[in-house]
Design a protein that fits this description.
The complex is a heterotrimer. Chain B is mainly alpha-helical. Chain B is built from 16 helices and 4 strands. Chain C has 3 domains: 2-110, no CATH class; 125-214, no CATH class; 235-368 and 382-531, ABC transporter involved in vitamin B12 uptake, BtuC, CATH 1.10.3470. In chain C, a hairpin with a 5-residue loop joins strand 1 and strand 2. Chain C is mainly α. The chains are: A alpha/beta, B mainly alpha, C mainly alpha.
């Protein structure tokens, strides 16, 4: 696609949002939002309630169609033209704020479902668990620490374990870009730090976009930070930089 | 704790499904023994099963297959279709049309080319959509194709536009209602109000003969077993787990990259076809099919069979269909006034107090009984473990999408 | 015959206060008529038509109907009604020993013509414009009843423009028979565009005559006039169907408003909603049984009674069942369906499975005339007005009362409302009660239009859901537009497709529409809807 040629920047990006706007009944949830993420980058997104963080994720993952603007994935595909499943299969994984695992399936089944490929009805009907897939599940399991609960219903896991399982499912998809919404919500301090470590590990292989409120967590992530406000980017830079930005202080403390 | 499902498809189907296997054995036994007792032992013998009883049981078997088809989409995929009676009736009409053509010139008007009701309407020739129905094979194809195509078209529209939850239920109900109105019209060419009846024979065998009834009964039993196995094959495959994922959290399934609409469509069409087969076996046994079968209340009644039996288990649907229909036969005979009170009460009590049906109740009691003995495998692998919480989730999702 | 009698009773009843003495002139003529043969009768009748007496008209009307008799023994003039014989002048009832006691004052065709034109003349010059109008309309049927000069005189005198218009039509019809083409064409031009069926008939006859004589120009003129009438008539039938459609829309609106609350606001699928309507209709029946002598008042009593009955049953259902099923809409659907079965059977056991007769008060009956070819019934008009009133009242409750505020608060944010001290449980119960109560009111209205039976609710449940879903859930305005447009579309399709097919088409349309706009016509968009 020739869209890439009209990019305003030269370097390769995994995600490139250009002038994206969304409004609901006159309320502008996203206001000409522009943002880009480089391959292999980890990016934290912060912003007060209603800044448009969740809407931004909805727009990227095909849940909401923007009124205008475009979103390039890997400098070629315009994500705004595809639905959730297509976007997911291109290599964009999403983790919800509320842990969303399939509660009445076991941990194993949840992971098995998430494994890349075999998305058609026919493939699902004739699916067989191969050794390679089993290995992949084992690999993920060792990362998310749920080995001993493999055959339990996901619904019986603790909140933190569900969060981890969902991250495990993301990994099973082998996405290039991971969108993660408030992963630390409801976690203990210890779990939070462990999650931050995990993300750092992940950022070696994937690009990550993490929406978070918890400043300690963001500090632990140690990455570039983007501040959203009223649907567009207010500031961008290192956490220390952003913290000292006068506008950001006003937005967070002013009201 | 659930067991990992291992082995090939056959093992998966049969060996891991203790309760279902037992039930299928029982049905197979019934399918053989009942006709045997009907044909071999003379009337008056203690072992004789009357043709009336056999026909009644045959009806239950058809209902059981219908219940399995409902459970397949409701129990596993969370689609509450209030229009499954339509698929059942369409299958029945396809069979009825074949039986109608078999009457030939033995009708009241003795017209060799036209069924009686067409003669009555002064029609001169059979309408185009009746062509081919004098062939058994063609009628059988239609038994599957008509419900299947309707389900495909309707489902493709509804699932693609993400009509879910109660909205879907309401428009499926509107669908069967519209069909009922249509089939009541004489101009439709399906016998109007009276429907299709006065059948004489099937494949050359007299429908009134005990041997034909016995064969139909046996066929119903086999159809139920096959329908169960097909459904079981689907729900134990990865596809089945995707269905459960769609039921519990449709958006999660989407974000995992599954095209939810295609999965729903597949299972909806399979379910409609099973319902059509049930209807096709039902019609020759009861001897009539009329537009009343499309009545919305019928479609809702089948939901309660599944709910009473225990949704998401398949064999629970079989149990529920037989239980509720036995009760219906008994009460409408003995205390006609009471039956609707009972049925109504059943709806309320099941939803309030028996979310997992009698199968869930049985499992619960068994667990309690055996809790001292270390639990163990009850043999019942209900698709849903935490019925309430997952239901709540499904419904929230439904509201959000609606 | 009956007409004459009724007319007579009316007139006599008015004059009952003063006992009538036989009036000399009229009485004398009457006595002459008794003795006269047909030949003499002609002259006597001509004199009769000129007698200036308030009872002359009645006398002639009864005479022309052939109901005028006299008693043989005392020559008293009597009227033979269907089941009684009364004296003409004093209005007393007469008991007869034998049918032969009285003899008819017979009339022949010549006399009838005389009498009719006499009647017409008397009426057309009456002081009462309504009577003149009636006479003029009657003349359309038989324009020859009035001679040309009298007609012209009447036209000159007539001050009421409506009556004048009709008289002109009479003139036009007469002119169709005129000798010259010019006059006949003039007559056609008078008649063009009139909606009186008699005018149309006259024009059709005229065209036939013109065709027989192959008078081309006149055929053309007649065709044009007829075409104009046809197009006006088809406009009429569209207007009538529109009216029927609005009335059906009003019925749908009434049936759906309650649902708009329970389903639209609370998100509860109440499959027993139809039975709430049924309970309202049965309440009307019971109220009428309790006050059989005040049918006119019964509806005024039934409306609050039905609201209470259905509302209380609704509250009971909410507290007993639905409360335990919040967040599980599919289960709610099944449980309330069960309740609907129980309620149906309960009504069947208490009142019998047969339909009950609910009387329509007199003030609901009758029609009003839009134009000569279009009369509309009052009961439909009342239903339309009533449904809009109920909707307005409901909107007022939701927007302006504390309860409405609490209700909206609870539906928007339950935990927040609860923490602000709103008893959410009771708000739920009352909201559901309100929706059910309104369904009960709908039942009162429906009892005036359809059969009241245990299954009546079933007929409305699917339609009601269609209206709410089509209009957009949680939006009263959408419910109004949804109901009215579905009603109108249904009725406009009916003449073209037939009632059943029209209904099927509407259902299919909605099913397809929901695919396109799953949230209905007037949907809340975006975030608010996601959260709701």
């Amino acid at each position: 696609m020739s869209l890439a040629k009209t990019k305003h920047i030269e370097q390769p990006t995994v995600l490139y949002m250009d002038g994206v706007s969304v409004s609901f009944d006159g309320f502008k949830a996203l206001n000409s939002l522009s943002l880009f993420i480089e391959p292999g980058e980890m990016r934290a997104i912060i912003g007060p309630n209603g800044a448009g963080k969740t809407t931004m994720m909805d727009v990227i993952t095909g849940k909401t169609r923007p009124d205008e603007g475009r979103i390039l994935f890997n400098d070629e595909l315009d994500l705004t033209r595809y639905d959730e499943a297509q976007v997911a299969n291109m290599g964009v994984g999403r983790k919800f704020q509320k842990p969303s695992v399939i509660e009445s399936l076991t941990v194993f089944e949840n992971l098995e479902m998430s494994l890349k490929g075999g998305r058609s009805v026919w493939q699902a009907l004739t699916h067989k668990l191969t050794g390679a897939k089993q290995d992949k599940i084992d690999e993920i399991l060792s990362m998310i620490d749920l080995k001993d609960r493999l055959y339990e219903d996901a619904g019986s896991l603790s909140h933190g374990q569900k969060q981890w399982l969902e991250i495990g499912m993301l990994l099973g998809q082998e996405p290039e870009l991971l969108l993660i919404d408030e992963p630390a919500a409801g976690m203990t301090d210890e779990e939070t730090m462990k999650t931050a470590e995990l993300f750092k590990e992940l950022s070696k292989k994937h690009s990550l976009m993490v929406v978070e409120h918890d400043m300690d967590f963001i500090e632990a992530l140690d990455c570039r930070v983007t501040v959203l406000h009223e649907g567009s980017v207010l500031a961008e830079g290192s956490l220390a930089n952003v913290k000292n930005n006068q506008q950001v202080i006003e937005v967070y403390l002013g009201r | 704790m659930k067991q990992e499902i291992k082995g090939g498809p056959l093992t998966r189907l049969i060996m891991n499904d203790v309760a279902g296997r037992r039930m299928m054995m029982i049905i197979l036994a019934i399918a053989i023994i009942v006709p045997f007792c009907n044909l071999v032992f003379p009337e008056g013998s203690a072992l004789h099963v009357s043709t009336y009883t056999m026909t009644l049981l045959g009806k239950y078997l058809c209902y059981a297959l219908l219940a399995v088809s409902v459970d397949l989409i409701w129990g596993y995929c969370g689609i509450l279709s209030l229009g499954h009676g339509a698929f059942f009736a369409l299958g029945g009409y396809a069979m009825g049309m074949y039986l109608m053509r078999q009457i030939g010139d033995r009708g009241v008007y003795a017209n060799p080319d036209l069924p009686d009701f067409m003669v009555f309407l002064n029609w001169t020739e059979v309408p185009w959509y009746w062509f081919g129905f004098d062939q058994f094979w063609f009628a059988m194809v239609m038994v599957l194709a008509v419900p299947g195509i309707l389900a495909f078209v309707f489902g493709a529209l509804a699932f693609r536009s993400r009509v879910t939850g109660v909205y879907l239920s309401i428009i499926t109900q509107a669908l069967t209602y519209a069909l009922m109105l249509a089939f009541f019209r004489n101009d439709m060419g399906f016998g109007g109000n009276n429907g299709l009846t006065d059948f004489k024979d099937i494949l050359g065998f007299d429908l009134q003969a005990d041997s034909t009834r016995a064969a139909l009964f046996f066929a119903s039993g086999i159809a139920l077993i096959l329908g169960y196995l097909i459904s079981r094959f689907i729900v134990t495959s990865k596809l089945g787990r995707v269905l459960v994922a769609i039921r519990d959290s449709e958006s999660r399934a989407r974000f995992l990259g599954y095209r939810v609409e295609w999965y729903k469509l597949f299972v909806f069409v399979v379910s409609a076809m099973l319902a059509g087969v049930a209807g096709a076996l039902y019609v020759p046994q009861v001897g009539i099919i009329n537009p009343g079968e499309f009545a919305p209340i019928n479609s809702i009644e089948m939901i309660i069979w599944v709910a009473v039996g225990g949704r998401g288990t398949l064999f629970g649907a079989v149990i529920g269909a037989v239980l509720v229909n036995y009760a219906k036969t008994y009460f409408t005979g003995a205390f006609a006034e009471l039956w609707l009170f009972m049925l109504g009460g059943l709806f309320v009590l099941t939803t309030l107090y028996l979310p997992k049906g009698v199968v869930g109740l049985w499992a619960q009691m068994k667990d309690k009984f055996m809790s001292s003995g270390g639990g163990g495998n009850s043999g019942i692998t209900t698709g849903s473990s935490s019925g309430k919480s997952s239901d709540q989730k499904t419904s929230k999702e439904a509201e959000g999408n609606a | 015959m009956l007409f004459a009698f009724v007319l007579y009773t009316v007139v006599v009843a008015g004059a009952e206060a003063s006992p009538m003495k036989p009036n000399t002139a009229l009485h004398a003529v009457a006595q002459e008529l008794i003795d006269a043969g047909y030949r003499e009768k002609q002259a006597v009748t001509e004199r009769l038509t000129t007698i200036d007496d308030p009872k002359t008209l009645l006398f002639m009307q009864i005479m022309v109907e052939g109901d005028l008799y006299y008693r043989k023994d005392d020559r008293v003039v009597v009227i033979k009604g269907d089941d009684a014989v009364t004296t003409f002048f004093s209005g007393e009832e007469v008991t007869l020993e034998s049918k032969r006691d009285i003899k008819k004052i017979s009339v022949n065709n010549k006399l009838r013509v005389l009498l009719r034109s006499g009647i017409a003349r008397l009426q057309i010059f009456s002081d009462d414009p309504e009577m003149r109008m009636q006479a003029a309309v009657n003349l359309l049927k038989s324009a020859e009843d009035l001679d040309q000069t009298t007609l012209e005189e009447a036209l000159d005198k007539e001050e009421n423009s409506d009556v004048r218009d009709v008289l002109l039509l009479v003139k036009g019809i007469r002119m169709l028979e005129a000798d010259t083409e010019k006059e006949r064409l003039q007559g056609v031009s008078y008649l063009s565009g009139s909606l009186y069926p008699d005018v149309r008939g006259a024009l059709a006859n005229y065209r036939r005559a013109a065709e027989a004589d192959s008078r081309t120009e006149e055929i053309q003129a007649a065709d044009e006039a007829l075409k104009k009438i046809e197009s006006l008539l088809s406009l009429n039938s569209v207007a009538e169907n529109l009216y029927f459609g609005l009335a059906l829309g009003a019925v749908l609106l009434l049936a759906a408003i309650g649902l708009a609350i329970t389903f639209g606001v609370m998100g509860v699928i109440n499959m027993a909603h139809g039975e709430m309507i049924m309970l309202g209709a049965y309440t009307t029946y019971v109220v009428q049984q309790l006050m059989p002598d005040h049918i006119g008042m019964s509806l005024a009593v039934a409306v609050p009674a039905a609201f209470l009955v259905s509302g209380l049953v609704g509250v009971a259902i909410e507290r007993g069942v639905i409360r335990h099923l919040y967040g599980r809409p599919l289960e709610t659907l099944l449980a309330t369906f069960g309740i609907s079965l129980v309620l149906q059977q309960a009504v069947r056991s208490i009142f019998s499975p047969l339909n009950r007769e609910v009387a329509t008060p007199d003030w609901m009956a009758g029609t009003f005339m839009i134009n000569p070819a279009l009369e509309l019934t009052f009961n439909r008009l009342y239903i339309i007005i009533f449904s809009l009133m109920v909707l307005a009242l409901l909107a007022l409750i939701l927007k302006r009362t504390l309860f409405g505020l609490q209700m909206r608060a609870v539906t928007m944010n339950r935990p927040m409302a609860s923490s602000m001290g709103i008893r959410t449980g009771w708000v739920d119960a009352l909201t559901f009660g309100l929706g059910s109560g309104i369904a009960g009111i709908a039942g009162v209205a429906l009892s005036q239009l359809t059969n009241v039976g245990p299954n009546m609710g079933q007929a409305y449940i699917i339609d009601s859901f269609m209206v709410v879903v089509f209009g957009g859930v949680g939006n009263l305005w959408g419910t109004l537009v949804g109901a009215m447009s579905l009603g109108v579309v249904n009725k406009l399709l009916e003449p073209w497709a037939g009632a059943v097919v029209a209904k099927i088409l509407v259902l299919i349309f909605i099913i397809l529409f929901i695919q396109k706009r799953p949230r209905g016509l007037f949907a809340l968009k975006g975030r608010a809807a996601d959260m709701g």
